[in-house]
Amino acid sequence: MSKRFEFFYDFESPFAFLASTQVEALAQRTGAELLWRPIFLAGVMQAVDNRPPAQVVPKGKYLWRELVAWREIYNVRLKWPKRFPIGAHLRPIRGALFAFSKSLEAGVAYTHAVFDAHWSQHVDITEDDVMRACCEKAGLDLAELDEAVKDPMLKQRLKDSTQELIDRGGFGVPTFYVDGEEMFWGLDKMGWVEARLADKPLGPLRV
Length: 207
What we know:
The chain has ten helices and four strands. By secondary structure, it is α+β, with helices and mostly antiparallel strands. The protein has a single domain (4-197), classed as Glutaredoxin.
């Protein structure tokens, strides 16, 4: 039976954005199934009494230095968002659930489009024009998305996914689970995820 791994993410996290640029290649290299799992990061942080790194002064000062290093390693464009955090603006992440309800391809395309807009293009993903462009890249209609994200059932799905991560021991993103069991947290653990998927022993952390 082929292996699989889950990728829990929220558009608020720059490290989840960086992971999103690598997970498909990781799945291809290992032949594993990739499951995209959108969640509401602020809900997780509040539930487990975690704090964003930027709120801890020494971490906040170091954060951008580390992001720049990962940006160079992966050769991706990364800028600090025009609007950060987006906080209670849940339309983008609820929209991911709507997109995946249409098809895997639409969900993946939408996820990449929103991550790119937020972390690469320096535009405000709470604005209608930006969301419309992201929808168009995924073959979606913004009006339909806006109707869907108001649906109590879709709202509950996001709450359930967020609670699931908490119940499984998660406390932030990116979080990965291999074959539904072993948890790995953080961008720098992707090498360990790959080792597990390839049935290799864990080694020193690597990119």
